[in-house]
Amino acid sequence: MVINGKVGTYDERTIYCWKKSCIRSVKIRKRSRKKILVTKGQLRGSINKIIGIARDRNIIIQQVDKNKLDQISEGNAHQGVAALINAYNYSSIDKILDKAKLSNRPPFIVILDEIEDPHNLGAIIRTAECGGVHGIVIPRRRSAHITQTVYKSSAGAVEHMPVAKVNNISSTIEELKEKGLWVYGADMDGEEYFFRYRIKRTYCFSNR
């Protein structure tokens, strides 16, 4: 159904994401969407397709003023549509390794340490998803976490990429080595790109 009215508040258990590409990625997953917000008078084109899918899934569709979406998107381009969804459900090392087993490919994990800019984290997630990475590991402290800014920067790729938060990166690296993974450090001054290097073993990359 489409309703008019005020946008309710949300807490740390929910986040907004916006832009059509992000909404399209979110709708693929079964994770609950609280509601879809569209600018009044924008019920046409690709937004109509999003509304049709939302109706099929009994998701509330709410028409709001453009300045409300401007506020939600923190001044960024939202293309007239946003979604209020449940906050990101973090994965674990074991689940990432299980995903690798199901893919019938050697595990490919990226470990990120002290990536504090959510735009950078989102961009890395987007690239990792395109590069066949099975999962990403970040520390609980001194790191950006999955926020609506990360959703936007990843163009929705975060919905397809398991991310695990760990207490200690060093301990996690040792744990992965014990499980048979080889750890390669990424270096800005390195002379070889990883896709040109023949790696035959299970492996993960780290920026430490």
Notes on the structure:
This protein has 208 residues and is an alpha/beta fold. The protein has two domains: 2-86, 60s Ribosomal Protein L30, Chain: A, CATH 3.30.1330.30; 93-206, Alpha/beta knot, CATH 3.40.1280. Helices cover 33% and strands 23% of the residues. The protein is built from seven helices and ten strands. Helix 1 runs parallel beside helix 2 (45-56). The radius of gyration is 19 Å and the shape is elongated. The N and C termini lie far apart (49 Å). Residues 1-12 have low confidence and may be disordered.
Q: Any chance you could write out the topology, listing elements then pairs?
A:
Elements: E1 2-4, E2 14-18, H1 20-28, E3 33-39, H2 45-56, E4 60-64, H3 66-72, E5 81-86, H4 93-103, E6 108-111, H5 118-130, E7 135-139, H6 148-153, E8 163-166, H7 169-178, E9 182-185, E10 203-206
Parallel strand pairs: 1-4, 3-4, 6-7, 6-10, 7-8, 9-10
Antiparallel strand pairs: 2-5, 3-5
Helix pairs in contact: 1-2
Summarize the structure.
The protein is of the alpha/beta class. Helices cover 33% and strands 23% of the residues.
